[in-house]
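haha ok so turns out i had the wrong file open the whole time. this is the CORRECT one, sorry everyone. sequence first:
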Amino acid sequence: MAARAIPKAVPLTARRPEPAGPLKRLGLRLWRRAKVEAQKLLPAWLFFYLSFSLLRLTQTAVLQEHGVTILPPSKVLAGSLIVAKALLTVDSLRLFARLENRPIIVTALLKTFVYALVTFFFEYSAALVELRGLGLAQASQEFAHRLASLRFWVIQVWLVVLLFAFSGARTLARRLGRRRFRRLFLGR
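then structure:
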């Protein structure tokens, strides 16, 4: 019987990693950036998605009794993403750095006002994209027609209340610190 030679295993530390090409490095950077953005977006999106879903459920229960159709679930998803992205956009501008030492109520009210304005702009932009086949003038007229409905303003009032609750809670959490807020809120 002939003895077989066993090849020596090269230790993992001795292997030289292949240098990443520029395209791979760019992909990794984009992936890391997307991950950070998603981590920032998730809490706001989840809050508004659940809130809008509860509003839609209430609206469905009331309006179906009268035979009125309601928004599809995709509008709830899109609306919550629009509001969450509006919040991230405003937060990235660092407009509120001077408010760090102000009372939380002042910070929350000012943030709510700015968030509401930016969200309104995002809603208008989304309506223009949705109605892009009509042309800019006709799409703007259609959006103005939506502004005249009571339903639009009821939704805006709810949005402002939810924005205030979210910005107040988030400001409180930032001031207390992550650990202390978690301990006070969850008991851990």
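The helical segments are 22-64, 73-92, 104-130, 136-147, 150-176, 178-186.
again sry for the mixup
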